[in-house]
Design a protein that fits this description.
Largest interface: A-B, 84 and 86 residues
Strand content of chain A: under 5%
Number of strands of chain A: 0
Largest sheet of chain B: none
Radius of gyration of chain B: 24 Å
Oligomer: heterodimer
Radius of gyration of chain A: 23 Å
Shape of chain A: globular
Shape of chain B: globular
Distance between the termini of chain A: 28 Å
Helix content of chain B: over 70%
Structural class of chain B: mainly alpha
Strand content of chain B: under 5%
Number of helices of chain A: 15
Chain lengths: 279, 269
């Protein structure tokens, strides 16, 4: 190693020390605790599968995450597709409408949804006032409210990923399809959608992973009535102090995320998308 | 349906749908503005006129909003400086020292982008309670440095990938010492990426809530933490006022970025 190389190596050391000691080590300790707290063994994992309350939390998490992912992908694709087809000036306005919620604090967004969806909130006042409904609707502190908030949170991410993907598609392919007499609907489903599979897969993967471990929005818009994994872990740590259950559930969550990422990296389309993003 | 109407629908309906979805994204965040201007002292739309009392309440020191803003600013500045320095050192080191070690470390460094923060939060409560760093400035700042590093590394790395390695070769062949090359050849060339990294690191820390929620209690109240407890507690319109301020700052920042960005792009072309 030349002295120049040694210098470069030394420059990576502070980052290494910080992440290894204060990121990797605490997470490894979470994994270890799940086998040692309160007693040595697999007791916590047996409990995870036998406890009916945890089963309910897991089912809620999977259901809410699945619905959120499907809705987000379909809605974001529609926006990204429109973005690609807009004239530049209009596109700037549209991108601005995507970027404002993207950069706004997740707490502000959850709070905005509360003021809209509450029993005497903006939407219910309008609905009751106009006579559309006689009783205020239950729009929040239930799965509906949580899903609305989560879709709203995830959409800007998904739109940015899909827009980047769609704008790389060669428009001459579309022109070729059109000149061969394909109708717009045919072009959409048989040219655009297949060509955007890598983008769709990567956006879907990110949304599933974010949703499964999401604390803030489900906790605020669910208000304890829609208990998802992250909030359940948080209650175990801060109120009931059941470290064994909390760390075992965290370990399972980490395992699921790792499996999803590993699966994603096996798919050639996704690997290409990852590498394409790196260039 | 005649073919012409059908063609029109095929073109117009997707557009309409897309604009409705854009409205779904954008309009709800605006609702905090009228609520902040309400003349009542609970969350509602203005009744008999607008009032700026809830903005004034933010300035009242006893309400705690100013204190939490200052706390967040201090922690975000400190963690941005440290995260940028460490990330720049790492990015430059990894750019020069190509090998297995930097690429493995890079994956670990970027992993907080994917690993759910709740898992990290559980780990840090345990570690910080052992080290006595729960509910301290130092404890929160270190956690925010770790969480801010991925975006800083990405921004600085992007800047480095545009740098011509022959510059470094030239400097070496002219006999420049390593410290000179790093400080006077590489660093000045990646200033834009480093600045972007610093801003991103600041925003990550300023906004971070999940891990902070676990490692603080009464001593350190960052702005997100203050907002979190206010949402859980009840219905103070001051919350809408602070949300409006944050919205205004975001919009101004975005407009500035978009116009400055365009200027730079224009000058280049």
């Amino acid at each position: 190693m030349t002295s120049f190389q040694r210098w470069a190596f030394c420059l990576t050391v502070p980052a290494a020390l910080l992440t290894l000691c204060l990121y990797v080590l605490p997470i490894l300790q979470v994994l270890a605790l799940s086998f040692t707290e309160p007693t040595l063994g697999f007791g916590n994992y047996v409990a995870l599968f036998q406890n009916a309350a945890i089963g309910r939390v897991v089912r809620t998490t999977v259901f809410v995450s699945a619905v959120t992912t499907v809705l987000t992908i379909v809605m974001s694709y529609a926006v990204a597709f429109a973005l690609v087809h807009m004239p530049p000036a209009t596109r700037r306005v549209a991108l601005f409408m995507v970027m404002v919620p993207f950069w706004i604090s997740v707490l502000v967004r959850a709070f905005a949804w509360i003021t809209i969806l509450r029993r005497n909130g903006v939407l219910n006042s309008a609905l009751v006032g106009s006579g559309a409904v006689s009783e205020p609707l239950e729009l929040v502190y239930n799965q509906f409210g949580v899903i609305v908030g989560m879709v709203h949170y995830m959409m800007p991410f998904a739109i940015m990923l899909l827009y980047a993907n769609l704008s790389e598609i060669d428009l001459r392919i579309i022109q070729a399809a059109r000149s061969l007499g394909a109708r717009p609907v045919t072009i959409f489903f048989r040219v655009w959608v297949p060509l955007s599979m890598p983008g769709l897969a990567i956006a879907g993967l990110f949304i599933v992973i974010f949703s499964l471990g999401f604390l803030v929005t489900p906790a605020i818009l669910g208000a304890g009535r829609v208990l998802m994994v992250a909030e359940y872990i948080s209650v175990q740590i801060s109120s009931t102090l059941r470290w064994g259950v909390a760390t075992a559930l965290s370990t399972m969550l980490l395992l699921v995320v790792a499996i999803l990422v590993a699966l994603a990296m096996r798919s050639p389309a996704l690997r290409a998308a990852f590498e394409g993003g790196r260039k | 349906m005649t073919p012409r109407i059908r063609r029109l629908l095929e073109r117009a309906l997707p557009k309409l749908f897309a604009w409705l979805l854009l409205a779904f994204l954008f309009v709800p965040v605006l609702v905090v503005i009228p609520v902040a201007l309400t003349d009542r002292d609970y969350l509602s739309l203005p009744n008999n006129g607008i009032s700026f009392d809830h903005f004034a309440a933010l300035a009242n020191w006893r309400a705690g909003w100013m204190a939490s803003i200052l706390t967040s600013l201090g922690i975000a500045l400190a963690s941005s400086v440290v995260a940028t320095a460490v990330s720049a050192a790492f990015a430059i080191g990894a750019w020069v020292y190509v090998g297995r070690w930097p690429s493995i470390l890079r994956v670990i460094l970027l992993s907080p982008l994917i690993v759910p923060p709740i898992i990290y939060a559980v780990g840090m409560v345990r570690l910080w309670s052992k080290l006595g760093l729960l509910d301290t400035w130092l404890g929160v700042t270190i956690v925010h440095v770790i969480l801010a590093m991925p975006l800083a590394v990405l921004a600085i790395g992007a800047s480095l990938s545009n740098l011509d390695p022959r510059l470094v070769q030239a400097a070496r062949s002219l006999g420049a010492r390593p410290a000179t090359i790093f400080g006077r050849v590489i660093l000045p060339n990646i200033v834009p990426g480093t600045a972007a990294g610093a801003i991103l690191a600041f925003i990550v820390s300023w906004d971070e809530i999940t891990v902070t929620l676990f490692i603080t209690s009464r001593g350190i109240v960052t702005l997100p933490r203050k907002i979190w407890t206010s949402i859980a507690d009840a219905v103070d319109p001051a919350l809408a006022a602070i949300a409006t301020v944050m919205l205004a700052v975001t919009i101004v920042g975005l407009i500035l970025r978009m116009t400055v960005w365009d200027r730079i792009a224009q000058r280049r072309s």
